[in-house]
Amino acid sequence: MKNARFVAMILIVLGLAVGYYSYKDNSKPYKLGLDLNGGTHLIYQADVTKLQPQDVDASMQSLRDAIEKRINVFGVTEPLVQTERSNIDGQKVEKLIVELPGVTDIDKAVALIGATPVLDFRVATTTIIKTATSSTPVISYVRTGLDGSLLSRAMVEFDPTTRQPLVKLQFNDEGKKLFAKITEENVGNIVGIFLDNIAISEPVVNEAIRDGQAVISGSFTNPEAQELVRNLNYGALPVPITLIGSQTIGASLGAGALDKSVNAGIIGFAIVTLFLIVWYRLPGLIASLALLLYVAMNLAIFKLIPVTLTSAGLAGFILSIGMAVDANILIFERMKEELKKGMNLHDAIHEGFNRAWTSIRDGNLSSIITAIILFAFATTALIKGFALVFLIGVLVSMFTALTASRTLLLAIVPKNKETAEKPFIKFLFSNGFHFKK
Amino acid sequence: MNIVRNRKIFYIISGLLIAGSISAVMVWGLNFGIDFKGGSILEVSYSESRPDIIKVQDIISTQNIGEASIRSTGENGFIIRTKTLSEKDRANFVKALGQDVKGFEVKRSDSIGPILGKELQIKAIMSIILVIFAIVLFITFAFRKVSEPVSSFKYGLIAIVALIHDIIIPTGAFAILGHYQGLEIDALFVTALLVVLGFSVHDTIVVFDRVRENLKNDKENQDKKRVPARPFDMVVGDSISQTFTRSINTTLTVILSLIALYYFGPESTHSFALALLIGIAAGTYSSVFLGSPLLVTVQKWQEKRKK
Fold first, then answer.
1. Positive or negative: CA dihedral B234, A366, B266, A318
2. Which residues in chain A touch residue B109, judged by CB atoms under 8 angstroms apart?
3. Structural domain containing residue B302
């Protein structure tokens, strides 16, 4: 008994800490989905019909990287770019999914993503700006007309002596001539390589190059060199894409949905606890406390993982508040039965928990199966969000409705067996509205 | 009220509901949302003064975007549905709508191409079948030790009957609501169906579990104290009444939280909450009044056959 009270105290303190974390701690804010925060969701289909099957994965990967780079230029916080393959009527469809939180100008986003990136070579010219006290050299670049369309291919090689990765470029005939001319005129000068107007490499020309081959010997790490080669080889998007679905939610609509969801959650919680206390009395109060712990723990997990919360996810959470108490209801009904059979209060509590366990286990397993299938087959972020919240809810409820409520209940049962048998105490621990005949 | 003895009445109620649902689907069909059939939705608001619906129709007719349905929403908004628009058409359309008016805002824009719709159709059907299949396997496994008088695999089959019942009724209800209220069958509706499946089987399991426990107790009593075993229908009847309050109360708490979601939650989950409310009510009904009495019916059939 003492033990139960001690554990209960620890539980309450922990519960308060978790509650504080979910409510007050702002070090890690909740992650809100596009439908609550406003933003744009774009789905593209990649046309891979011209690729060899074994190249599809690599091409999709470089497509993803290329798009991600463009978005980073856009300055979106936490964008999401991912590829997805779905099987529709036996045909593989390669999709690219882009989420842009906070971006509600869909036209601008689409234009940015659909744009073809430009790879080009520019010659550096140094102008010296003189002021009264000092002269500062300023480097500016001049376009040369040599661009990605004149490159036949790029590859990674290694310096035979230093083992440093190098990037080797091979131009086509036209590029060969132009490159020879540029390098001839610019020995000792910098020829910058630009991707989407950003300098990705600024090598110095050592001598005129006439064979149409160039080596970029920056201080690359191997992955950097690989990335550069990929960018050079896929100056344009590696795979053509077409927009097949888009969704934009304005910020005001999202904020409204969030407020309403929170409101509905609080009201739902209040009604459910009211019902529990009225029907199940003291154990109902305990179940309500356990439910409060359930809410706090769920919210903390949403923050920690973090789970992207959508309106469907919050709906799932509100639904799960109603479902989480099921285990408690099962247990309390069982307790009542055992009490009716004449069992004393202590034994009835233990029996209630033990006997209800198989139902709770089997029932929750079926919910878990459903949640997992739902998650695996979800076509949209909205439904994935729902399935995840639902799954977490079922798991957490097994802890709060079983462990937490048992501990709390045992902690408040009167120690003295005689006191425990007093009608008033029995009334408190019993439930329902059936009067003595 | 003896549920097992009066089981025929409950079968008839279920039968009528199912027949009604199927005819509703046949008469009115299902009103699929754009995530199933593809299309575009645009929700716009005019904070200063909303133009006449006729003016919006005029704009649409100049845009060459085919037919559109316009519905006003709130005090100053419209929801406009069209076929799937290309990005260019969509941008032009929005521009035209926002021309010469102050306080124009695009609140929401959804556009779903036919490929995505097709994908959702396939996945929706597959996930429903998979959930039902997994649940039957699970029940067969969980009740594997129960073989007398009804084998565990039949518990699974009966659960399927109950589950199909629980899917058909909300679908029928949405055929009616789709016709009269414009509610759509969308991805969230399918999600609601899956949740209903999980919930209903949970409910069914609780009653079955009690049957399992009572059968075990009876067997022990029979072995030890030589108390004759009770007839199967009595065991099932007792199990139902022992779990009755629980079934009702659990459904009640879920329904209470769903009502909160329906009345106070965001617009986007209204029909989701409604589908869940209908489905969960049907699910509870099927667990208590359909699934468990069916156990008895199956057992009686077996007896007759033996004779």
1. positive
2. 106, 246-248
3. 7-33+115-306
